Amino acid sequence: MRPEPSELQELVRDLHRQGSAWLPAGLGTRLDWGPPVAGPCTVVSCAGLRGVREFNPGDFTITVAAGTPLVEVQEVLGHQGQWLSVDAPWGDRQGAAAGSIGGLVARGLAGGYRQRYLGVRDQLIGLALMRADGVTARAGGKVVKNVAGYDLMRLFTGSWGSLGLITELTLRTLPQPPLRRSVCFQGGAEDLAGLSRWLLGSSLSPERIDWWNGSLAAAAGLDPEPLLLIGLASVDAATLQEQVRCLQERSTLPARVLDAATTGTWLARARGGTGPAAAAPTGATAPAWLLRLGVSPDRLGTLMQAPALAGLAVDMAAGSGLGLAWSDPTEPRPALTSSQVSTLRSLCNELGGHLTVLRQPPDAGLPAWLDAPSRPLIEAIKHRFDPAGQLAPGRLPGVAQRLSTV
Ligand SMILES: Cc1cc2nc3c(=O)[nH]c(=O)nc-3n(C[C@H](O)[C@H](O)[C@H](O)COP(=O)(O)OP(=O)(O)OC[C@H]3O[C@@H](n4cnc5c(N)ncnc54)[C@H](O)[C@@H]3O)c2cc1C
Fold it and tell me: Which residues line ligand 1 (CB under 6 A)?
């Protein structure tokens, strides 16, 4: 259902009175990813909640309706030389397929820009929401320095629609960096791990340090060897050049220096070639396996050399140890088995992290996530927000699904 803003509250109250299960949705581009919702469920789309409500360029804040596409927000900010410092979700960046700002926050996933600008939740300074019973609430505010009240912004980031429907968000914006350049090194995992370790301990502050495996490099049209793509930004050309020089001197691997346009082309090729964005982000031509990986950053070198990653394209952020791995979308039945993915999950756990299954072949039967140590707390919070369990049944981050529902 796609209610108009004036109809939303009445619709949600009706669903509550009827005790119906429902799922808050943005533009619906990636609803099928992650654990399946158990049983019949009404999808309530935020596509009708669209537009910029308030933009204060001087304060570097913007308030937008939750269903506004991220691309639209970036466009409005761009006119004032500002931006929202998050990666575009993979998919068609020009259209609705890029997803809504509410969907971005509800999923809470971030890309390489997290290295310098932190995660999506760190850009969020206020929100408005509707609970499962139709009660509305606000948290945070519209200024960057804001300390009053409960921090619902962090709670709702990554909530996957399980706690309530986000209707409006206030976000922190930044000036666009005027100068950008990237340096790319290709080589063995040990060399790349050493360089990344040094870089993370250095005084340089790259925007991103993306670590691709050989399959992803090949998808971008490069030699099929692992690489580090280090994105640099500055207001000053001499400073930028100095950072490039530091990197070139540090490594014995040959360095390729790229301008912003070439970096953009590489990223687009990697993500659009055989990546999750090769076709529609959902549907038959999306990759059969799409995995969210996380390990402790100092163990990333071990993960990247793991035989369990064979057959997957892998893109990890070296600073956070978080990233995505996916099978070739042109292979509807990839060779990768559930037991190989379970082995990979155990490895991620051993390396201080986790693995979330965003997409899997229909008969694979893996839980999207395992129980988090804080499961009792997560369930208690869920009960407070949604006592009747109407929202996104069977899909609560940190609570493993019963396999019978998979
Ligand atoms: C670099 C990068 C890579 C990413 N890769 C992936 C990926 O591989 N897989 C992936 O799933 N996502 C990924 N994301 C997240 C992606 O941004 C979101 O999935 C996408 O923005 C969803 O947009 P949508 O409007 O179509 O949401 P939908 O597909 O409609 O919903 C997505 C999820 O958010 C919830 N939701 C949506 N809107 C609201 C709302 N207003 N209130 C409460 N809950 C809501 C839904 O219940 C659902 O769980 C990535 C993000 C980045 C930055």
Answer: 23-31, 33, 46, 66, 86-87, 89-90, 99-100, 102-104, 106-107, 109-111, 160-161, 165-166, 276, 290, 324, 358, 392
